[in-house]
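Hey, can you fold this one?
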Amino acid sequence: MFLGLDLGTSGLRALLATVDGDILASAEQAYPVNHPHSGWSEQDPNDWVRALGAAAAELKANHPTEFAALKGIAISGHMHGATLLDENGQVLRPCILWNDTRSHVEAAQLDQTPGVRDLSGNIVFPGFTAPKLAWVRKHEPDTFARVAKVLLPKDYLGHWLTGKYISDMSDSAGTSWLDVGARDWSEELLSASGMRRDQMPDLVEGSDVAGRIRPDLAREWGVSEDVVIAGGGGDNAVAACGVGTLREGDGFVSLGTSGVLLAAKDSFAPKPGSAVHTFCHAIPGTWYQMGVILAATDSLNWLSRNLDHSAADLSAMVGNTISGPGSVRFLPYLSGERTPHNDSAIRGALIGLDIGTGQKELTQAVMEGVGFALRDSLEALKSTGTELNRLLAIGGGSQSRYWVEMLATLLNLPVDLPEKGEFGAALGAVRLAICAATGAAPETVMTAPKVAGTIEPRGDLTAAYDEAYQKFRATYPAIKAIQ
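Sure. Predicted structure:
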């Protein structure tokens, strides 16, 4: 049996699966996110440990024989978080999360440092880990002086499981400390933010063995001390493992809290100025590129809260098929934006409201705004030389056929819908655990899901949506000028 863990921003999901990847059981545990100041987003790492302990206890109670046969564990985690430990492995302060924007000044300074973009392959975004440590160095010097190790969120759980300080390349690529082409820590990048190599964890590939379960924890859980802990990976890389996005030309679009357009790459070919992320994949010798928007279904959830209707009810209002773009424009920059603007200060807008605008029109505008922003990501990916022939749609928003048909038409790409079942980051983690424990080749384990159907672009509406997109593109600089 194998355990796949998905450490999300708001909760942990655990899957217990067989060596064939068949899911036996799942468990979920929630935990809070704290926002002590505007732009701050923090979490207590002990909440992750408690969540994992509770999820494991639930799986063990419901499936004691199968849980006792555990052979491997892997973790997918939200990226970029800064978990700071002292020389005794104790947490020094709450983890600063990926969506925390306090270090925007430090990010801009690091981004302008010669060589940083070339080595890291990316713009230094405020959400990345390196500027967070530069912020701590400036504003919390006593804490900074005590930092012995910096761990990404999923690596803190890995440390709890193994007692070792280990990370993988895919997650570490989002720190601005990794030479992403060489797949190793860079002394030059580390020194740019006042860090040292000894403060970093050791590196392994996501599908390789990172360690074995602590003997005392093995006894507590009733499992073998030979249980393997895989390197794991950052959430999007592991999601790619879950849906079989491994080779050049493979890609998916994720309509989750944030929106992602991801393409697998056989080589390291960054173009930082496009604001496209170029990261190591969770499997050896492979990279991926992605455009990221910070508010996808989060935009619909925002509208849901303000209209006092569930997101599902709002989705139902627009129906199942598109009929052309609406007259109301929505800019989904509720938390700033990454691709292509790299702008943590920009905020959203609704434009074109009139006396007849109602809930349906607002919902359509929000869905279209997210779609237009993902088209921005596609154009940015194209500028790097990446080509996609089709996409797989995942994430909660992909349950809306209207939204997916609109995306297919806006991106002018066929979009496949997977059959219902487990896929994504938790399943990807199961697959990494299988590879690490058995030595199986990733391409034999990480297959694509069966496709339930394909939504083709609406050729009769492609031109109309393209025209609307051009107007959307022109809106950002105008809004930026007055904010």
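The mean pLDDT is 96. Let me know if you want another pass with a different chain boundary.
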